[in-house]
Amino acid sequence: MTPADSVTSSALRVEITTSIEIDRPAAEVWAALVDRDAYPQWNTFIRSWQGALALGERQTVRIEPTDSSGQTFRPRIVELEPGRLLVWLGRVGVPGVLDGRHRFEIVPIDANRSRLLHSEVLSGVLVPAFRRMLTVDTPAAFARMNTELAARVAA
Do 42 and 146 touch, CB atoms closer than 8 A? Predict the structure, then answer.
């Protein structure tokens, strides 16, 4: 993680915020981010992601924050502004058990440079049971994916 990245944690909530500046136009960063078929080639965190990229659509996402842990879940896209913003909401069980609001936002800095903001708010009664994973492993995986995305776009 970079110095601007942060993790805040309270009893039933963890908020992860990461970012990276990428020496490519925002449109190129967005194109790489939504080219989910290519994820196995470069993304060591989100190993697969399938589903129509449309508001309200359910996705099938396989994450592997560490070499020894992984999970497949089915979040729903709750915000979408093509070229700029994608937010999904994933849940374990019913609302309030473990909810994750995952956000990708691409902000142009200038014509040839952009910033990826990659964050998530996790909340629910299972947060204490998974606190170490949520506050250490997951933020490191976000930062790793950010770096991998920047390298992918620069290639």
Answer: no
Contact residues for 5 (Cβ-Cβ < 8 A; gap 6+): 17, 18, 19, 139, 142, 143
CA 139 – CA 17 distance, rounded (Å): 8
Neighbours of 34 (CB within 10 A): 15
Closest CA to 2 of 112, 154, 142, 132: 142
Which one, of 116, 127, 34, lies nearest residue 77 by Cα?
34
In terms of Cβ atoms closer than 10 Å to its own Cβ (0-12, 13-18, 19+), residue 26 is: buried
How do residues 115-148 score in pLDDT, each as one tens digit? 999 999 999 999 999 898 899 999 999 999 999 9
Tens digit of each residue's pLDDT (9 = 90 or more) over 18-75: 999 999 999 999 999 999 999 999 999 999 999 999 999 999 999 988 776 788 999 9
Q: Which overall architecture, per CATH, does domain 7-154 show?
A: 2-Layer Sandwich (3.30)
